[in-house]
Amino acid sequence: MNINASLFVQMVVFFLGAWITMKYIWPPLINAIEERQKKIADGLAAANKGEKALAVAAEQSKAIEAEARGRATSLVSDGEKRAQAVIDAAKAQAQVEADRIIEAAKAEAAQEMQRAREQLRGEVAALAVAGAEQILAREVDKTVHAQLLEQLKAKL
């Protein structure tokens, strides 16, 4: 066989194989590679977007947590203020009640003292009459001297 013919046939087969590869095999292969590159790029972009969203969400959660702590603190302080107001109101009401009871006790004591004075006046008058009877050694008429005893009670 002739080397030139063999070389020529090999060259024709090589170019024919290269042309078939470039026409039918290379385009789907390039499309698959480009499609894979696009998927990878999209995945990386989504990952970056997710990282940014995660950072924003972390900041928002910190802000929400700080706000919740602030609200909790304000609720606790409001509760303490309300409790103190209730305690103060109860103290004031207890003081008013204590003052009322003291005034009632004073009034009752004054009435009791007045009753005791009246009773003492009556007893002093009776003792005065009894003493006068014994001193005079005669019977004193109680009906006659009733007005004198009433005047004596009034003076005592």
TrEMBL record:
Q: Where does the protein end up?
A: Cell membrane; Endomembrane system
**What is an example of a GO molecular function annotated in this UniProt entry?**
proton-transporting ATPase activity, rotational mechanism
Membrane topology, as annotated: Single-pass membrane protein
- Is tRNA processing one of the keywords UniProt gives this record? no
Matching entries from Pfam families are given as:
ATP-synt_B (PF00430)
Provide the transmembrane region boundaries: 7-26
One GO CC annotation: proton-transporting ATP synthase complex
Q: Summarize the subunit comment.
A: F-type ATPases have 2 components, F(1) - the catalytic core - and F(0) - the membrane proton channel. F(1) has five subunits: alpha(3), beta(3), gamma(1), delta(1), epsilon(1). F(0) has four main subunits: a(1), b(2) and c(10-14). The alpha and beta chains form an alternating ring which encloses part of the gamma chain. F(1) is attached to F(0) by a central stalk formed by the gamma and epsilon chains, while a peripheral stalk is formed by the delta and b chains. F-type ATPases have 2 components, F(1) - the catalytic core - and F(0) - the membrane proton channel. F(1) has five subunits: alpha(3), beta(3), gamma(1), delta(1), epsilon(1). F(0) has three main subunits: a(1), b(2) and c(10-14). The alpha and beta chains form an alternating ring which encloses part of the gamma chain. F(1) is attached to F(0) by a central stalk formed by the gamma and epsilon chains, while a peripheral stalk is formed by the delta and b chains.
Identify this protein by name: ATP synthase subunit b
